[in-house]
Amino acid sequence: MSVLEKLKPQFHPAFPRLASGKYVHFFLVRHSQSFPVFQTDGVLNTARTQAGLDSEDEKSGQSISRLVMFKRKQVTPERLAGRELLRSLGLTSAVEGEGGFCEYNSQKACKKCPDCILYGFGIGDKGSERSKVYSDSAFSLSPYETSHRSFTFNAPSENGTMSEKGEMRSAINNLDHVLPEVTFPSVETLRDPTFEGFIYVLGNLLRTRRYGGQESRTGTMTNHIVGIAFCDGEIFSNLYFTQAIYDVLQAKGETRVPIGNLQREAAMVAENCLKQEPVRSTIIVEAELGGLLEEVIGVYQDEANLRAIMTTLYQQTQTYSEAYGALFPEKKKEEKKKAKQGSSS
Prior knowledge:
Radius of gyration: 23 Å
Oligomer: single chain
Order of helices and strands: HEEHEHHEEEEEEEEEHEHHEHHH
Mean pLDDT: 91
Strand content: 15-25%
């Protein structure tokens, strides 16, 4: 039996109206592959935090500055990757007037597609949906001082040089960038998923490659999944996960390790931290996780299988919206109209 088949009983057959105590936690190590830019006010986002969890230990208890990857800088690119997939399969459309039309972050959101129902929306008095994907700010494992560099960018003329008609052109910008191979340990949570919703959100994590500003030119990152846990409640934060990994590395006298080693350490930390949480849990790591990820990647490489799963997911989210969500009033109104027409004919 495949890993996915074995896991199917862990999921709801349909999205429930109320929270029902099924949580899937994805443990990630987000790993920069170029020079991402995570800014909001012209400078990189940073926060002062305790280095590790042990306040009695000199190194773990010291305060350090860390780079911050705010939650919207994580979830927005992942949502857009998912929405792109739905359009490519013809399930949604960006053309107003066509079936499945949905506009991101606007009053023209369709309120029924997988993106609207899983990641949520809010359109004032026209309805809202709480996100079923929980995320929070992620913190760099390494200190800010060793994780960034400022670069100055020039504005060459069309002839490719910095001079034009005998006059030198000036530089146009100076930006602080995150360095390559900086890691951001994260926990992303999916509440009350169906099997198809799980495949969709996990696929978004695996397929999203660019984060932060100027993403068409830089910002390449890889999300390494180091564990997936099925629990009946929420668990520890991104910062706690980061500090726990920091303590393990410090105890071994290592501050920067190759990404493969870091993935193994992060998986062990996730397992150990999970044992301290007041939840019932099952965690998938190592070989079983590798098998699961291979199967999910196989789904995304098989168009017929992928289309069938995403079509089923779209039907699930539409049914949810009509039964419990923002489309419920419209559905009732339509049913009343049909009933009235039937009685008068």
